[in-house]
Amino acid sequence: LKKCPDPSPLLVGPLRVEFSTPVSLDTVRKENPGLQEGGRYKPHDCVALQKVALIIPFRLRDEHLKFWLYYLHPILQRQQLDYGVYVINQDGDNTFNRAKLMNIGIAEALKEYDYDCFVFSDVDIIPMDDRNTYKCFSQPRHLSVSMDKYGFKLPYYQYFGGVSSLSKEQIMKINGFPNNYWGWGGEDDDIFNRSENV
């Protein structure tokens, strides 16, 4: 097979994203017949340019996760990615540690497949345009630079939260993510500072 084109000819541009009607996992399965067990997908008519692991740090957000899967699987398939989705759940009532979950996600994903790109996504962020490609670049990339909850602009210059992508090589250069941030915030700025030096 030949390599998939860049950009993908399957992209449609702006999308209608709404949350008024609940979504079930059965609906996600039915509407994505090409999905393999465990949330894996590979284009059947070309070879994807990157092997992408999508890591979702998660706890107690089941409805958000269903919407994420419902919207993202078709987008990622139109982007012609060879991808796998990894929902890394923090159980219990202890303070949330997003960065530690991201490190666990990297380790678990690499046990299954030789990914060369990692996209880290909050479970409540869905792109409104499928041309916002979930892939890696020559430098770490913040992919959610225009979010409706912030008036479609960054809350501050160093903001690296929401959705970001780093190659396997870039992750190794920054020595993974900081495990010492508990609760919300702080780890994004640390990751930004580490990424600036890649």
Automatic annotation (TrEMBL):
Pfam families, A to Z: Glyco_transf_7C, Glyco_transf_7N
An example Gene Ontology CC term for this record: Golgi membrane
A single MF term (Gene Ontology): beta-N-acetylglucosaminylglycopeptide beta-1,4-galactosyltransferase activity
Membrane topology: Single-pass type II membrane protein
Pathway given in the UniProt record: Protein modification; protein glycosylation
Location relative to the cell: Golgi apparatus membrane
Keywords: Glycoprotein, Glycosyltransferase, Manganese, Membrane, Signal-anchor, Transferase, Transmembrane, Transmembrane helix
Domain Galactosyltransferase N-terminal as annotated: residue spans: 4-136
CDD domains in alphabetical order: b4GalT
SUPFAM superfamilies, per database record: Nucleotide-diphospho-sugar transferases
GO annotation terms (biological process): carbohydrate metabolic process; protein N-linked glycosylation
Residue intervals of the Galactosyltransferase C-terminal domain: 141-195
Principal location class: Golgi
Family: Belongs to the glycosyltransferase 7 family.
Protein name in UniProt: Beta-1,4-galactosyltransferase 1
Organism of provenance: Oncorhynchus kisutch (Coho salmon)
